Amino acid sequence: MSLGVFLAALTGITWTEAAECPRKDALGTSRVLSVDAKTTPRVGLKSFPQTLALADREVVLTFDDGPNPPTTSKVLAALAQECVRATFFLIGLHAGEHPDMVKRIAREGHTIGHHTFSHPFMARIPFDKAKSEIDRGIAAVETALHGTSTTTPSTPFFRFPYFEGTPAQLDLLQSRGIVVFGADLWASDWNEMTPQQELKLVTERLAASGKGIVLFHDPKARTAAIMPAFLRYLRENGFRVVHVVPAGLPQKNADAR
C-alpha cells in the first residue's frame, strides 16, 4: 500500500495517489522519515538534547497554529508548486472552525500533528487542564478529519505551544506513544518584521545550522508571502526536504519529484 493510500485510509479521506511532480526542476520531497515514539519520544534541539536523524542539508518543514484558510492556502500552494510535503501542527479550535482546510492539508499529502485546543501556556496551568487541552485538541482535529471524536490521534505527533511543557505533561505524552516535536531553528515569524526580513533571518539561520526541523506559522501573512522564495532558496542551495510520518507507515512512493 502506498503512503497516499495509507493516509487516506487513516483519515477517512478518499484521494488518488500523488502523481509524479509535473515540474522536473522542482525541489521535491527527498525521502520519508518514520518517527517512533518508543525510540525518539522527543525531538528538537531548541527544547531537547536530541533531534531527528537528518543528514547535512536535510530539513523538515513544520507549520504551527493553523489552519487559517487565507494564509494556509497560500502556503499549501507554494508547497504544491515545489512538490514538497510538510507537517502542520493544528490548533483544535481552528481545526473545528475550518474542517475543509484540515481535509485539504491531509489530502495534499502533508502530515497533521496536534497543538492543543486553544494554545495556552501549558506549563502555567494545572495538570488536569493541560490534559484536557491535549485531549480536546486531538479530538477536534480527528473530528475535522473523519467525523469521529477520539483522543487517540491518527498521527501521534504533538508540539507544545510556546515550547512550554512540564515533566508530567511530557511523561503523559510519552506514555501514550505521542512524539513531542520541538524545533532546531525557527523563522521567529511571531515577531513583527517584513517578509524580506523574515526570509533573510531564516535562511541565515539555516545556513548556519546546515540542517534541521524548521518552524514556521502558516497563519502569518509574512510567512505565506515568503514561502515560494524560501523553497527556491532550498532548491538553489542544495537542501533536501524530508517528510516525517509515524513509524509503521510504508515509505514506498514517498518521493513526489
Protein topology:
Elements: H1 3-11, E1 29-35, E2 42-43, E3 58-64, H2 69-81, E4 87-90, H3 92-97, H4 99-107, E5 111-114, H5 127-146, E6 157-158, H6 167-175, E7 179-181, E8 185-186, H7 195-209, E9 212-217, H8 221-236, E10 240-246
Parallel strand pairs: 1-10, 2-7, 3-4, 3-9, 3-10, 4-5, 6-7, 8-9
Protein architecture, described:
The protein is of the alpha/beta class. It has a single domain, classed as Glycoside hydrolase/deacetylase (TIM Barrel, Alpha-Beta Barrel), CATH 3.20.20.370. Helix content is 38%, strand content 17%. The protein contains eight helices and ten strands. Strand 3, helix 2 and strand 4 form a beta-alpha-beta unit. Helix 2 (69-81) packs parallel to helix 8. The radius of gyration is 17 Å and the shape is globular. The two termini are 19 Å apart. Residues 1-19 and 251-257 have low confidence and may be disordered.
Radius of gyration: 17 Å
Major pleated sheet: 7 strands, parallel
- Kindly name the structural category: alpha/beta
Low-confidence stretches: 1-19, 251-257
Tell me the name of the CATH homologous superfamily: Glycoside hydrolase/deacetylase
Number of domains: 1
Second-tier CATH architecture: Alpha-Beta Barrel
Shape: globular
N-to-C series of helices and strands: HEEEHEHHEHEHEEHEHE
Mean pLDDT: 90
As a percent range, the share of helical residues equals 25-40%
Instruction: Briefly note the CATH topology name.
Output: TIM Barrel
Our count of helices gives 8
Strand content: 15-25%
Distance between the termini: 19 Å
CATH class: Alpha Beta
